[in-house]
Sequence to fold (266 residues):
Amino acid sequence: MYDRFNRRISYLRISVTDRCNFRCVYCMPAEGVPLKKHDEILSFAEIAEIVRVGAELGLKKIRLTGGEPLVRKDLPTLVRMIASVDGIEEIALTTNGIFLPQLAKPLKAAGLNRVNISLDTLDAEKFSKITRGGALGDVLKGIDAAIEAGLTPVKINFVRIPGENEDDEKAVREFCERKNLQLRFIRQMNLKTGEFDAVDGGYGGICEVCNRLRLTADGFIVPCLHSGLRYNIRELGIRQAFQQAVEFKPEKGTGTESHEFSNIGG
Fold:
């Protein structure tokens, strides 16, 4: 699939749930966000069919996000279903890492290739403040579990929070070097105004080479993180939703109020 700007669209980020066990200050309010009803959320069978049609159209890479994707029950089952789709070459997952000690090996066995894990500080007190209650030790155990399971290269996502964690970058960088982890620095974004920067250490935020679409947990294909355009697969049909998302994918995002980071997975 090629869009109007000759970008080859081959990457789909799938939000499998709008729920999360953290309340990170840069992602959602302390009280949480309104949650979708169970029957609004795509089933595993629906997601697998969307991936199958997308693969026929040229998708090669899948990333599972949330919310926190590992709070979705039986996620290895979905990974196995996606891994069986012809044409899919890579399945990755972005997580806070809390449940990886239990799930890393089953996910690897199901066909997951690698993970990105959020880690914004190595200061336990500051970590609890940023996540509003999370335990740093649990994430560190999750990182070790991912390494042991072979979900490599393990990538670490560090969100730069002005006035909060600038002094933590050095310690996290040294930690990643010791553990042979790949580190990415992400600046805070503003979805409403479309303000964003390129990811330091990755390809996110570079509009000229953007090759991705997003699928929300309730069935909308979103062509751009910083755009309000969205196409409902249940109303339009899967193939038509994909085709419209690609056809109208903007050259650059300008802002949106149709979604938040908490329900689209960044």
